[in-house]
Amino acid sequence: MHPEHVFKIDESERHKCAEFLSPYLELGGHVFSTNYDLLLYWVEVSSEELDGKCIDGFGKDRLNEDEPHEDPVYSELIWGPNRSEQNIHHLHGTLSIFDEGVDIVKEIYDGSYLLENIKARMQSKQYPVFVASGNGDNKLNVIRHNPYLTACYDALCSAKGSLITFGFSFGDSDDHIIDAINLACSKKRNGFDKLWSVYIGVYDDTAKQHMESIKHKFQCKVNLFDAKTVSIWR
Question: What pTM, to 2 d.p., does this model score?
Fold first, then answer.
């Protein structure tokens, strides 16, 4: 059911999403996603509102630095060069990121649609980095065995201020996310520099009842809001 390419998403919707994300990133905030799809990636690269604001940790290394007089030759997009400034984190991986054994790389548009390039990699038995199944412990085990996923998870463990969640159900297999939030709540840097509250979007009474039943798992203040009132795409 994944859209074929970026142009299947209306331009006005992409800009609306970018407008929603922009203020958080401008103020030094971070975006954490548990989705595997390319929607966030498409919004990042196709919206002027986010120019220079989204840093996913990937960059290109020059391969012929020892030949300064030659035209520069660069690697593919490798995770690491911009890691210290990273503010976009795919906690469970995503379709565009691949583990090549030594390097974590990101698939880029090269004249062919991203999804076509991704399918070609998969046909050659290269598979995207993603955490697909299992309980919270199983997922955390997969995360800890991948340096990119570990860095993203540690960034959530170090979140501060307030965290706003949208479209995330905190189901039975998501206890590792709650554990990360609690680690962020318990950290005291200068006495105040930690995560103080979580705002969780709920769509209906069933979701609200579920969140009320697990509030006790959180070590910081939990606030619920009506997710239907948030206009992200239109």
Answer: 0.92
